[in-house]
Amino acid sequence: MSIQPFWGNLIGVFTVAIMLSFIGIWVWVWHSRHKQKFDALARLPMNDGESP
Predict the structure, then answer these.
(1) Choosing a second label site near 36 at 20 to 30 A (CA), which of 1, 2, 18, 27?
(2) How far apart are CA 36 and CA 52, in angstroms?
(3) What is the model's pTM?
(4) How far apart are CA 28 and CA 23, in angstroms?
């Protein structure tokens, strides 16, 4: 049983779209303007009930 060319192309386009989405989210997360917010969120479990 072989796959038709249309479905092969569709799967290829879907794979590229998912890969670009992953790379876009990765770049957004590692952008320097988010560092302060993520550092504050990382320290949140260590506060032991203290108010921020």
Answers:
(1) 18
(2) 14
(3) 0.62
(4) 9
Q: What is the CA radius of gyration of the chain?
A: 20
Cα Dmax for the chain: 63
Positions of the chain with pLDDT under 50: none
Q: DSSP string of 13-49? A: HHHHHHHHHHHHHHHHHT-GGGHHHHHHHHHGGGSTT
What does the pLDDT read at residue 25? 95
Q: Which tokens is 52 given? A: 């921020």
d(CA 29, CA 3): 37
Amino acid at 46: M
> How many residues does this entry show for the chain?
52
